[in-house]
Amino acid sequence: MVLDREYVGRLALQLKKFSGKTLLNYLKYVLVIKFSSLLASVVDFAMPLSHDYYLETVPERLQACVHMMENLCPHFVRKLARMTFNRENATTPRWHYEEEMHRLLYLVRESMKQTVQQAPWLSQIEVDATSQKIEKIRFVSPFPADDALLGYYKLLNETMTFYWITNSSYDLDARYQSSSLVVAEVEHSAERNLLFVPHGLISFANNISGTFDPPFIPIIVPGILRGMFAAVDRRSSTANIQNQAVNWWSNTSLTKFASKLQCFQDQYAAEMKAALIVQVDEDFFLDENVADNPVLHPLHDIYRKAMHLSRHMLRDSWVPGLDSLTTDKLFFDNYAMGHCDRVSFELHRRQVLYKDSIPAKLRVNVPIKNYPKFAETFKCNLNTPMNPQSRCELW
Fold first, then answer.
1. The predicted structure's pLDDT at residue 285
2. 98 CB-near residues (< 8 Å, 6+ apart)
3. Which residue numbers delimit the Peptidase M13 C-terminal domain (predicted)?
4. What end-to-end distance do the CA atoms of the chain give, in Å?
5. DSSP calls for 340-352
6. CA distances from 327 to 74, 254, 324, 381 (A)
7. Largest CA distance in the chain
8. Considering the entire predicted model, what is its pTM?
9. 362/385 Cα distance (integer angstroms)
10. Where are the beta strands (DSSP E) in 210-253?
11. What is the pLDDT of residues 153-187, one digit of tens each?
């Protein structure tokens, strides 16, 4: 980043706008926030500001320490997390997870390409370009190469590529991955068309089953699809298929997409006010809220294909041992389970006021009420809360 002329030029302009005293005060404030977990209890108030993804059941100082360590040594923490896959021997990898994950990613990519064909805000030329972008997405995951030497070379090459930029670039964010540990953070880099899949997204499945069974799909895959949707929506409209900084959406497409965003913006603001009695900024987690909705269509498609391929079960089949559930009902149940959180008014207010996340109740209920197949599966009457007359939809 230091060698990036664009970054240095913009930084110099910003430094001229503020006095030395203001800059030093800001620097001190940032240091207190970043290292609050190592300081005296008098600055405990700063710890929630030092990281995202607050977990209620984990001590605050421990959370802050782990996130600080990962910020300082991301690759080291990534390797430690990867070693937890084999419960019997930490130094012996379990390669079957890699094979199954790669098969799953193939289904995800193909389903997303098919879904994008229905994007009504894009012209046909833009739809074709978006499909090509999805085809060229490079996945970066906690699964290293089988060969130790090749794995080391890739790690070294990625580090050199991302941290020592030798040519001018408009990518001013030098992070490689934000976190390997948290479940929610699947990060898409528009300038590189790269999707980072964190260890935390799939590690819990390792403690339940030795394989990625289809019922895991509604729990694991939504995060991957949300990250991939960033290659489809306005966040990638400034980076073309060659990963160049170019505005490749037409003004018509931008206008159509903005009108759809407005629908979601109004809907979430109303839901937030009704549930938590708080007013939020207009763009409060707007891109994330929107992404939660369109991923249900390809997610449901992937689940049905996987269920048919591995279990030869049709969509209306009853689940063995669970006589009250069809395979589609199991899909929605597991999708909701993937967002499980304690029902607490104060916890939800904290998540919003600290701008940490959207409460799980809204992340589940709003997307599925916007997805017609939920009402069809559970036979919800029209004009009821989960089967409204009008919906906010993208596809």
1. 81
2. 143, 146
3. 243-394
4. 38
5. -----HHHHHHHH
6. 39, 38, 10, 21
7. 69
8. 0.77
9. 13
10. none
11. 555 555 444 444 333 333 333 344 456 666 556 88
pLDDT in tens, 313-354: 766 778 877 778 899 999 999 999 988 877 777 777 777 777
Q: How far is 198 from 176, CA to CA, in rounded Å?
A: 12
Residue 332 · residue 374 · CB < 8 Å: yes
CA distances from 91 to 66, 80, 83, 84 (A): 22, 10, 6, 9
> Coil, strand or helix: which one is 276?
helix
- DSSP E strand stretches across the chain: 138-140, 187-189, 194-196, 318-319, 322-326
Q: Which two tokens stand for residue 165?
A: 């930029």
Which single residue is written with the structure tokens 């030798």?
166
Instruction: Say yes or no to pLDDT of 236 above 90.
Output: no
Q: Which CATH number is correct for 73-395, 2.40.70.10, 3.40.390.10, 3.40.50.11810, 3.40.50.2000?
A: 3.40.390.10
76 exposure class (CB count in 10 Å sphere: 0-12, 13-18, 19+): exposed
Arithmetic mean of pLDDT over the chain: 80
Residue 222: half-sphere exposure toward Cβ, Cα within 13 Å: 27
C-alpha–C-alpha distance, residues 83 and 101, integer Å: 17
Among positive and negative, which fits the CA dihedral 7, 68, 156, 228? Answer: negative
Residue 300, pLDDT above cutoff 50: yes
- Is the Cβ–Cβ distance between 194 and 161 less than 8 Å? no
What's CA 370's distance to the chain center, in Å? 20
- How is residue 353 written in tokens? 């006021």
DSSP strand pairing (322-326 vs 318-319): antiparallel
Q: Where are the domains of the chain?
A: 73-395
Q: Which amino acid is at 99?
A: E
Which DSSP string corresponds to 158-182?
HHHHHH---S--S-----S-S-SS-
Instruction: Write phi, then psi, for 91 (nearest 5 degrees).
Output: -90, 0
Q: What is the Cα–Cα distance from 119 to 117, expressed in whole angstroms?
A: 6
- Give the phi and the psi of residue 334 in degrees, each rounded to 5: -70, -30
CA neighbor of 334 nearest in space, from 345, 325, 343, 323: 325
DSSP lists the bridge partners of residue 318 as 326
